[in-house]
Design goal:
The chain is mainly α. Helix content is 67%, strand content 0%. Helix 2 runs antiparallel to helix 3, helix 3 runs parallel beside helix 6 and helix 5 packs antiparallel against helix 6.
Length: 194
């Protein structure tokens, strides 16, 4: 029952709607606050379990509580990452108004938040068997595993999409000028000397 509030917050999060122009908080911006909620739960659990079961059992119980926070939502976590930047390319390029938090940078920022969380969570589990900690951390980070395995391909796709957007914007900006303006006379000789 302890992680119920964490689960409620997770499943209660609604990402902003792009089509409606909803100015809500993005998943990437929301995630650190949710991790902070778990860290507060872990600190409280560590204190309580040490009081009831002793200092030796406190870290083990804290690790179990952390695992219970994540187990029921890992598939949902994977879906949320996919909505930020899918592993397989979409048929259309993102619009030029897309923010960095809606693309590969968003995945990287979410991963950075997760690593920061795991580092802070470790402090609550010092004294726990390292195998238990490793298994819990690997489970928590598992939604990012496909992105890690395909990072070079995803980075190439991301760069290509950005290059296409830049080229499109350059073409739009250049449509206001004629080739005669650029090639013959719009620049005087002094402009070429630097």
């Amino acid at each position: 029952a302890r992680p119920a509030a964490v689960h409620k917050a997770w499943f209660g999060f609604n990402p902003p709607s792009v089509s409606s122009g909803d100015g809500g908080v993005s998943f990437v911006d929301w995630l650190p606050g949710w991790y902070e909620m778990i860290l507060m739960l872990l600190a409280d659990e560590r204190r309580r379990s040490a009081t009831v079961f002793g200092n030796e059992m406190g870290p083990q119980i804290t690790a179990q509580v952390m695992g219970a926070c994540f187990r029921p939502l890992l598939s949902s976590f994977t879906s949320r990452l996919s909505s930020i930047f899918p592993l397989r390319p979409a048929s259309t390029l993102p619009s030029s108004s897309s923010s960095n938090n809606t693309r590969l940078e968003g995945i990287c920022l979410a991963y950075e938040s997760t690593l920061r969380f795991l580092s802070q969570a470790y402090d609550h589990m010092v004294g726990c068997d390292n195998t238990i900690i490793y298994n819990e951390f690997a489970n928590i980070a598992s939604p990012f595993a496909p992105y890690q395995l395909e990072f070079s391909t995803l980075e190439l796709r991301h760069s290509s999409e950005n290059a296409a957007l830049i080229a499109k914007n350059i073409q739009k900006a250049g449509r206001g000028k004629t080739t005669n303006d650029v090639a013959g006379g719009a620049l005087d000789d002094g402009d070429l000397d630097g």
